[in-house]
Write a structure and sequence with these properties.
heterodimer; A: 582 residues; alpha+beta; 8-stranded mixed β-sheet; elongated; B: 209 residues; mainly alpha
Chain lengths: 582, 209
């Protein structure tokens, strides 16, 4: 038994498919009732087999004389604008009934387009035929004359002017939107200087020109538009952004100012529309109505007017006036003495301090006796340096002590260089870094500690390692050489002792005797201190720190495995630079 | 050398010197608020970390730190209300965690986990998805919805999130005390035929959903 699910489904032969070209079902279908359907066929192949058959061309919509009836001028104006934008409406007529608020807009355009445009603004479409207006059903062919009852006599409507339609439609409020790059502000001259000053502060280009305003409409103001009652002359300020757009905040402020009218410039300046308002008719179509230099469409504050420019535009920077009693005087050649300013003296005043690391300590005279007991065996003994003064002493270290000691006044380095203030104090007034160096004179050789009662200075060239306080002379050293070597060395020394000036002997290569003599001299502590004492990286770091080159000093500490001091110096460098910028 | 660079060097040195709190302070001064927040978070200074995250423009991070680590859901809500974040999914996780912390009846757990799964299954940014996964798992643990945790991990695995299988296995060992056994990742069966060879009228093949 074959698997019933294994059969392949064969497609239905084309000749057995029902053809609906004649509106009939299958030829032998007993249910055929002759119902006629439309010409649309589902089987393209079947239709193609019929002799003389071809694809039907789309039927173009008929072009009719369409009249739209609208309950408001705004709707009529919107319809007109859209019809013109679609390329129709060049022969449009504006019609009004003898009474009532309705507006009619009649013109020739395709029926489907007209229906759509009229319906979009809530109007009613009529088709003109035989001097009468027949209401359109909204679908299907245009109404035939006499097909519907009534029909309006076209002669009962009178022509109206498009300008009147614009006037009655008025303006609608719109959001300010994206700020433009240019705007024109109409104002009276006494308000000009303030606007110019503000615009210049914002970096805008400002020009001004006088303009004459004449009433645009004859009728009373309607809706949101105003009307200019009489001819007047105002100042027009043109604000232009250097790049980008005008500051939106400025436009908002001007829009809220009752003494000025800020307008956006449209169609190359032929149309000025107050910011925040718009007409139902697009700007380019409105501009086609302009019969002077420009039109102004504004709200009740300014009204609508015809503008006529007077003269030429000029730079408005000259309108920014100087303050009263502000004459110009020569700066040089005066015999008057220079002005003496009364400036406050620099003081050291208490200030909040928390967690500030200690850079140095100021010791009193008798603290030196206690210092060895504190630091002997302490890690600071290896790096701290002491600068002894007359009755005060400075204890510090390259990179700072970074530890609180039980004696002395803890100090923090404020820089630049070795300038210290007690922790918990600050300068008043705050002094920038360059001024601090100039006032106190600290440098690589002089450290200054600024105290509330005065400043003390220390000579850094006299600094010594702190361990010199408790490390005295070395015990005698017995050089362990054989007796014969000692006798030989003594004989050599006697022979080489110079008696008379002799020519400089030729350089002799170092002998064993000379090397041993130098070694003995070093052990016994004899011999002069070498002029160029061997310096360590810590000395270089100290030199860089007192010279104010804190990053270099920090780098040395970082490279030699002392990250804490490096961090402290980096932070000091950052804060000193920041204080300088402030 | 600009200030921020000097402070960053100082922070690195403080870190080397074993003073991470000072390092975090210097990073905050340098304007590296995200890094400072991470440093404070590692030190357990949750509120300081949250403050830095807010300055870094990461309110979701700050909110999570406040609600999940510092136990302050009201502060977390305040942070999220005051600033706009970058991720609606992470924000949803934080707010749901706030609901749980405050004992809100019927918090939107399932919706939140569903959103996280959708994020993990997609091609969104790795860092955001990684955080969303971590927070969702923590939320699931908090609410003992281990089923949702499994769904989240499964979504991460399907989404090809790096390391998702390992994280799932580690979570299973830690929380469920069991070894994770995952089926093989989706691949073509051995007897499968390419789609173009399948006759749509042939119904003898195996049914597949």
């Amino acid at each position: 038994m074959s698997d019933p699910f294994s059969r392949q489904v064969e497609p239905i032969p084309a000749d057995q498919l029902p053809s609906r070209a004649s509106g009939r079902t299958a030829p032998d279908d007993p249910s055929d009732d002759g119902y006629e359907v439309d010409d649309y066929q589902f089987d393209d192949e079947a239709r193609a087999e019929e002799p003389g058959s071809r694809a039907a061309d789309p039927v173009p919509a008929p072009v009719v004389d369409l009249a739209g009836r609208f309950g408001s001028a705004s709707a009529a104006l919107i319809y007109l604008g859209q019809a013109r934008a679609a390329g129709y409406g060049s022969d449009v007529r504006i019609l009004r009934p003898a009474s009532g608020p309705a507006w009619w807009v009649a013109g020739t355009l395709p029926l489907d387009l007209g229906r759509e445009l009229v319906a979009a603004v809530g109007g009613r479409a009529y088709v003109e035929s035989g001097g009468r207006l027949w209401p359109d059903t909204g679908w299907g062919p245009p109404p035939a004359p006499g097909a519907a009852r009534g029909g309006l006599d076209l002669g009962t409507l009178t022509d109206a002017d498009l300008t009147e339609l614009v006037r009655v439609a008025g303006l609608r409020a719109v959001a300010l939107g994206v700020a433009p790059a240019e705007a024109i502000v109409l104002l009276r001259g006494e308000h000009a200087s303030g606007l110019v000053q503000r615009a210049l502060e914002l970096g805008l280009s400002v020009s001004h020109q006088l303009v004459r305003l004449e009433p645009l409409f004859e009728g009373p103001p309607t809706g949101r538009q105003g009307a200019v009652a009489r001819t007047t002359t105002l100042t027009a300020m043109r604000l232009t952004a250097g790049k980008g757009t005008l500051p939106p905040s400025l436009l908002v402020a001007l829009a809220n100012d009752p003494f000025v009218t800020v307008c956006r410039v449209a169609v190359g300046g032929r149309l000025l529309v107050e910011a925040g308002f718009a007409s139902p008719l697009p700007d380019d179509q409105l501009a086609a109505l302009v019969d002077t230099d420009a039109w102004l469409l504004a709200g009740p504050g300014a009204g609508c007017a015809r503008l006529t420019w007077i003269g030429e535009a000029s730079d408005a920077a000259g309108l920014a006036r100087l303050a009263d009693d502000y004459p110009l005087t020569p700066a040089s050649g005066s015999d008057d003495p220079p002005v003496h300013l009364s400036v406050p003296a620099v003081r050291i005043v208490p200030a909040r301090a928390h967690g500030i690391p200690v850079d140095a300590v100021l010791l009193e005279g008798d603290d030196l006796e206690t210092l060895p007991a504190l630091l002997e065996g302490h890690p600071l003994a290896d790096i701290a340096i002491l600068v002894q003064g007359r009755d005060r002493h400075l204890l510090t270290a390259a990179g700072g002590l970074l530890e609180r000691l039980a004696i002395g006044e803890p100090l923090r380095a404020v820089g630049p260089g070795p300038l210290y203030v007690p922790i918990g104090y600050r300068f008043r007034p705050r002094i920038p870094a360059a001024a601090r160096r100039r006032l106190f004179g600290q440098d690589e050789r002089t450290a200054v500690v600024a105290l509330p009662e005065g400043a003390v200075a220390f000579d850094l060239s006299r600094h010594e390692p702190v361990w010199t306080l408790w490390v005295g002379p070395l015990p005698d050293i017995d050089p362990q050489l054989p007796v014969e070597a000692i006798e030989t060395l003594a004989a050599i020394e006697v022979e080489l002792t110079p008696e008379l000036p002799k020519p400089a002997p030729p350089k002799e290569p170092p002998t064993a005797g000379r090397r041993a003599r130098d070694w003995i001299a070093r052990l016994a502590g004899r011999g002069q201190r070498e002029a160029s004492e061997r310096r360590s990286w810590r000395d270089e770091a100290w030199d860089a720190e007192v010279a104010g080159n804190l990053p270099a000093a920090a780098e040395l500490f970082s490279r030699h495995g002392e990250p804490l001091r490096a961090a402290h110096l980096y932070e000091r460098a950052a804060l000193e630079a920041d204080r300088f910028r402030r | 050398m600009p200030d921020a660079d000097l402070l960053r060097h100082a922070a690195a040195c403080y870190h080397t010197a074993g003073q991470p709190a000072e390092a975090a302070r210097c990073l905050a001064l340098a304007g590296a608020h995200r890094q400072a927040g991470d440093e404070f978070a590692e030190l357990g200074l949750d509120r300081a970390a949250a403050d830095q995250y807010v300055l870094a423009g990461e309110p979701e991070l700050a909110g999570w730190r406040l609600v999940h680590h510092a136990g302050d859901p009201s502060a977390a809500r305040a942070v999220l209300a005051a600033t706009d974040g970058h991720s609606a999914v992470r924000r949803a996780v934080v707010l749901t965690r706030c609901d749980v912390a405050e004992g809100v009846r019927r918090p939107p757990l399932l919706d939140t986990f569903r959103a996280v799964c959708a994020l993990l299954s997609g091609a969104d940014a790795t860092a955001e998805a990684r955080q969303a996964e971590e927070w969702a798992i923590a939320l699931a643990e908090q609410t003992r919805r281990y089923d949702q945790a499994a769904l989240v991990f499964a979504a991460a695995v399907r989404g090809g999130r790096w390391g998702a299988v390992d994280r799932w296995a580690e979570w299973s060992r830690r929380v469920l005390r069991t070894e994770l056994t995952l089926p093989p990742l989706p691949s073509a069966p051995a007897d499968a035929r390419p789609p173009e060879e399948i006759d749509p009228m042939d119904v003898t093949g195996p049914l597949s959903l």
